[in-house]
Amino acid sequence: MHRTLLILMALPFMAASNPEQIMLNSPGSTMQDTFTPVTTEAPSLADILTIESSASIFYTYARETRLSELFTRTDTFNTILVPNNQAVMALARKPHQGPSPIDEDIKITEEEFDARSRQNVENWISAHIIPSRITLSQGAVYQTLREGCTVTVDLKDPKLDNGKRGNAVFNGNKSIISVREASNGFMYLIDGAIAA
What we know:
Blueprint: H1 2-16, H2 45-51, H3 56-63, E1 78-83, H4 85-89, H5 110-126, E2 129-130, E3 141-143, E4 150-155, E5 168-170, E6 174-182, E7 185-190
């Protein structure tokens, strides 16, 4: 037992003294390339979604789609309307289930079921992405990435400042909880889901 303990304690010293061991970026190293991390002045939409715990269900669904690439790209600007976790949990039919149930009499394969589920999620996520900057002005209508799906801005009190987020709602009843600016867009955390 003492011998095993002695060997375990001596192992790091024996490994460090190996003459064949090569130190990276040591003095005299001939390595030409050094690692340079990618930095930006502001976090991306993906960064914000990663740290926003109230958006975790939405982001979990979004990462299953090709649309999640938009959250990291720097050559596009998107506005995403993110239903908070409570809003997603309150949905009668979850995003992967689609808007209407599959008839029980119709039999489909597991592959067909998976394909439908993936398409349902992509449709739902795309209904929450506006491929441009938006303004919170009464009656403004924006096309989402989901074909035929638009988002309308309404003001609870049109006399108040249009840009005041507590005054604006989407599609009549989805209130803004918070707004986060990213290097490639804006994230509006809202208290309801946009109907796909």
